[in-house]
Amino acid sequence: MFRIWGKILKDGKIVRQVTYERLDKFTYSAFFNYLADICEELDIATPVLLKTHIFNYAKFNQVRFLPRDFAEHVDFDRLVLENITV
User: Fold this and answer.
1) What is the pTM of this model?
2) What is the pLDDT of residues 4-60, one digit of tens each?
3) Rounded Cα–Cα distance for residues 69 and 28 (Å)
4) Segment 72-77 long-range contacts (CB within 8 Å, at least 24 positions apart)
5) Where are the alpha helices (DSSP H) in the chain?
């Protein structure tokens, strides 16, 4: 089981947030699926996922997506996904 805290920040404040939880084991090969599910719950477009994003999540337990990572225009400063450890 794993949990990911997804939050949208604008001007340094959390605008929307969601806790994504799955019972199966976390795998980096399915990270795009987790990201797509989180973005669907937050009702935003899914950003482009690069290898550096996955490396940052693996190394720092956190990844940030900026507006330039999205193909569509977004009205926030960043999307942050953070690993929730139990």
Assistant:
1) 0.92
2) 999 999 999 999 999 999 999 999 999 999 999 999 999 999 999 999 999 999 999
3) 19
4) 72/45, 74/44, 74/45, 75/10, 76/8, 76/9, 76/10, 76/15, 76/44, 77/9, 77/10, 77/11, 77/12
5) 31-42, 51-60
